[in-house]
Design a protein that fits this description.
The chain is of the alpha/beta class. It has two domains: 3-60 and 377-434, Urease, subunit C, domain 1 (Roll); 62-371, Metal-dependent hydrolases (TIM Barrel, Alpha-Beta Barrel). The chain is 36% helix and 20% strand. It has helices spanning 87-98, 103-119, 140-151, 180-194, 217-230, 243-250, 254-260, 278-287, 295-301, 308-312, 333-346, 348-351, 357-371, 408-412, 439-460; strands spanning 3-13, 21-30, 33-38, 49-52, 56-60, 62-64, 122-129, 154-159, 203-207, 234-238, 268-272, 290-293, 317-320, 388-392, 420-423, 426-430, 433-434. Strands 1, 2, 3, 4, 5, 14, 15, 16 and 17 form a nine-stranded mixed beta sheet that branches. Strand 2 and strand 3 (33-38) form a beta hairpin. Helix 2 packs parallel to helix 3 (140-151), helix 4 runs parallel beside helix 5 and helix 11 (333-346) packs across helix 13. The chain is globular and about 65 Å long. The chain starts with a strand and ends with a helix. Bound molecules: zinc ion.
Length: 461
């Protein structure tokens, strides 16, 4: 058994049921779990390491509920500039690149995304992978699993797909299409290979068709059957501009369409939802589903800003996501917290108040855990997973800013690297370095892979 003692943290922001914040306290970690949070812990058995946490604030590990790792190598390019294009123009460009990605590129783009997540306090990462093309085959999620195992993040892989051809109304190029049968078979394979149903699982699989507008209805009905048979969760994009198309095609809005397909419930969470009406969040809450709010693509795309105060008044679970790098350029969930806060604050007077910065922190921790169906993560308490990160708040720039520590991250734009990140009881990032790998060597390999993508982008965009 490994025992770690985090000694004398200035603040422990637990995000527990009572919103406890402990000052000058210790955390004893045994293997993958928190054994005790208390002052002056004297362990009756020897600890393997005592980490001096004086001057630090410790938070529960962040849970990212929407991402597309495969997009990481198309960042910061004005030739694929999301804000200045229509979504259709933008998709047409990026899909031509994604159609030519291979497993090696996906492996390295996953490593880059996970590095960014871990260095900024994220301990559980959901990745929505819908890019299973004829050239790149069916083993893309396998690559992300491998990358996650190497760096030590808690990984949840969403097996996505698109099944509807362009001539029937989708935006999907032929090379990116699959049949529902191919998709379901591969979900079965991935669940058997990588879905650990036990608490503290480091790898899980979610059935996640990309979006209703780009799939046949049976893709969703078959997804529901499969997911409920295996007791795995479901995810898709919802309410991001497709409602007029869905109304025209099926005579109902997308949420109602999902309800009709039984793609709704506590085992389902949806990305974005900026197009949903207040009453639709009421409905979503009645089913106990969740929404992953991704502020970066909403701002960059110029889309409406979710009214979180209204959504919180329903039973809908809100979590946060960075979204894919093609619409964010970053995998920094601390930055997402800040951005979400600014967006909500900007409409506060108009809407008669808004959520607090700490509400957003809880969405990024507890909300994420609930959305993923993971009761063992999301807050800090005895027997919970030892997933956490520490910030060094003992710095000149924080003098006068520690009055309400719970609000610190969104309010002060604390978006730099954290001091250390612990996942499942292991410190995987510390003192500016990922602890499990030779980062410089990995960077050189990733750059070679990026160069191969660059050639594709030059040819296609
Ligand atoms: Zn997305």
């Amino acid at each position: 058994m490994t025992r770690l003692l985090l000694k004398n943290a200035d603040y422990i922001i637990t995000c527990d049921d009572n919103d406890n914040v402990f000052e000058n306290c210790d955390i004893l970690v045994e293997d993958k779990q928190i054994k005790l949070i208390a002052k002056n812990i004297i362990s009756d058995t020897q600890v393997d390491e005592t980490i001096n946490c004086s001057g630090k604030a410790i938070f529960p590990g962040l849970v990212n509920t929407h991402h597309h790792f495969f997009q990481t190598f198309v960042r910061n390019r004005l030739s694929i500039d999301y804000p200045s294009m229509t979504v259709i123009e933008w998709l047409d460009k990026i899909y031509r690149v994604f159609c030519r990605m291979d497993e090696e590129m996906l492996y390295y783009s996953s490593l880059v995304a996970i590095s960014d997540l871990l260095k900024h306090g994220c301990t559980t990462a959901f990745d929505h992978q819908y890019c299973h093309t004829r050239p790149n085959g069916k083993h893309m999620i396998d690559q992300s699993v491998k990358a996650a195992e190497m760096l030590g993040v808690r990984y949840v892989g969403g097996r996505g797909t698109n099944t509807l051809p362009r001539e029937e109304g989708s935006t999907i190029p032929p090379a990116m299409l699959e049949t529902t049968e191919e998709f379901i078979l591969d979900c079965e394979r991935l669940i058997a290979a990588y879905h650990d149903p036990e608490p503290f699982a480091m790898s899980q699989i979610v059935v996640a068709p990309c979006q209703p507008v780009n799939c046949y209805p049976e893709t969703f009905t078959e997804s529901v059957k499969l997911a409920r048979k295996h007791h795995v969760s479901m995810h898709t994009h919802l309410g991001e501009g497709e409602n007029p198309n869905i109304v025209e095609r099926y005579g109902m809005r997308t949420l109602d369409w999902c309800i009709e397909k039984e793609f709704i419930g506590e085992d389902v969470w949806f990305a974005h939802c900026w197009e949903l009406k207040a009453e639709e969040f009421e409905t979503m809450g009645q089913y106990g589903s969740g929404v992953s709010h991704c502020p970066a693509p909403a701002v960059l795309g110029g889309f409406p800003i979710l009214d979180m105060k209204q959504i919180l008044s329903t039973n809908t679970t809100i979590s946060l996501g960075v979204d894919g790098s093609a619409t964010n350029d970053s995998s920094n969930l601390l930055d997402t917290l800040r951005l979400a806060y600014l967006m909500q604050a900007s409409l506060s007077k108009q809407r008669g108040g808004t959520v607090t910065p700490y509400d957003l922190v809880k969405m990024a921790t507890r909300g994420g855990a609930k959305s993923l169906g993971r009761p063992e993560i999301g807050y800090l308490a005895t027997d919970m997973a030892a997933d956490l990160f520490a910030l060094d708040v003992n710095r000149l720039e924080f003098v006068g800013a520690l009055h309400d520590i719970k609000n610190l991250i969104p309010r002060l734009a604390y978006t730099g690297e954290v001091d250390f990140t612990m996942v499942n009881g292991e410190i995987v990032f510390r003192n500016g370095e990922l602890t499990r790998v030779d980062e410089e060597e990995l960077k050189q390999q990733a750059e070679k892979s990026q160069q191969r993508i660059n050639l594709i982008i030059d040819q296609e965009v």
